[in-house]
Amino acid sequence: MSIKKQFVKTKPVCKVTFSVAAKEANTVAVVGDFNNWNAIDGELSKLKNGTFKAVFDLPKDHSFEYKYIIDGAYVNEPEADSYRWNEFANADNSVLEL
Question: With a threshold of 0.90, does the pTM exceed it?
Answer without folding.
Answer: yes
